[in-house]
Design a protein that fits this description.
heterodimer, A: about 140 residues, 3 helical TM bundles of succinate and fumarate reductases, 4 helices, B: about 120 residues, mainly alpha
Chain lengths: ~140, ~120
């Protein structure tokens, strides 16, 4: 509070709005956003598992949503968030070893996560459809 | 007077040292193959009928991997959400409330998924 005399008037550290948006910063935010959104994805997974365990009627309800165009789109976003967060996480595991913290590497990691997550997600969907025989 | 060793033995303010940090890394590594397995499971079964999906999930290795994923991801998610809340929710009351809700949410999703997998595996 501004008028609270008991609190020292220390300078505040600048926050997000003061900085020029940079790719590495966006990727840091994307890692948190993708991670948090996966909570919704796992709620979907739980809904699906519970429906399968409950019986054909409950399954039909969930299936009619998940197999729809919207459902498939949601599942695609879920899988993309999973892979994006996974690659962002691997980047963190490399950083934990003290490697790859220079400017060139972090730029490569950022682009690698964006391009890699898109390519890998599409590849997994193609592989999945191929495995089931193009249905 | 606290020597550096005594401080180290105190293991920081939470008295648990780097346990949470390490647990987040361990579940992260476990999640890598499990997440790829999940995506392939989803894509190969979109729109499949009830009997096919149930038979797939009842296979021991599939159930085991799903269970491992549900547990590992829930631990990872709870730590991650906790970190976000600690960074952005500043009021002490709001912070405690959201941390409680996050934990209940993570545990709830994990338990519901686990119970469903057990029921499917036992065929009841």
């Amino acid at each position: 509070m501004g008028n609270n005399n008991t609190q020292a008037q220390r300078p505040l550290s600048p926050h997000l709005q003061i900085y020029r948006p940079m790719l590495t910063m966006m990727m840091s935010i994307a890692h948190r956003v993708s991670g948090a959104s996966l909570a919704i994805g796992f709620l979907l997974l739980a809904w699906w598992l519970v429906a399968v365990s409950s019986g054909p009627d409950a399954f039909a309800t969930v299936n009619s949503f998940l197999a729809s165009i919207l459902g498939r789109f949601v599942l695609f976003l879920f899988s993309w968030a999973l892979i994006h967060h996974m690659l962002g996480g691997i980047r963190h595991l490399i950083w934990d070893t003290g490697r790859g913290l220079d400017r060139t590497s972090i730029e490569i990691f950022a682009w690698g996560t964006i391009i890699g997550s898109t390519v890998l997600t599409v590849a997994l969907w193609v592989a999945g459809y191929w495995l089931r025989g193009g249905a | 007077m606290a020597t550096p060793l005594a401080k180290a033995r105190g293991l920081g303010a939470a008295h648990r040292g780097t346990e949470t940090f390490w647990r987040q890394r361990m579940t992260a590594v476990a999640n890598v193959p499990l997440v790829i397995f999940l995506i392939l499971s989803i894509v190969t079964h979109i729109g499949a009928d009830y009997a096919t999906v149930r038979a797939y999930l009842a296979r021991p290795l599939v159930a085991l991997a799903m269970l491992a994923l549900v547990i590992s991801a829930s631990i990872h998610r709870r730590i991650g959400l906790k970190e976000i809340i600690e960074d952005y929710v500043h009021g002490e009351g709001a912070k405690v409330a959201t941390l409680l809700l996050t934990t209940f949410f993570a545990v709830g999703v994990a338990l519901a998924s686990t119970l469903a997998l057990v029921k499917i595996s036992l065929g009841s």
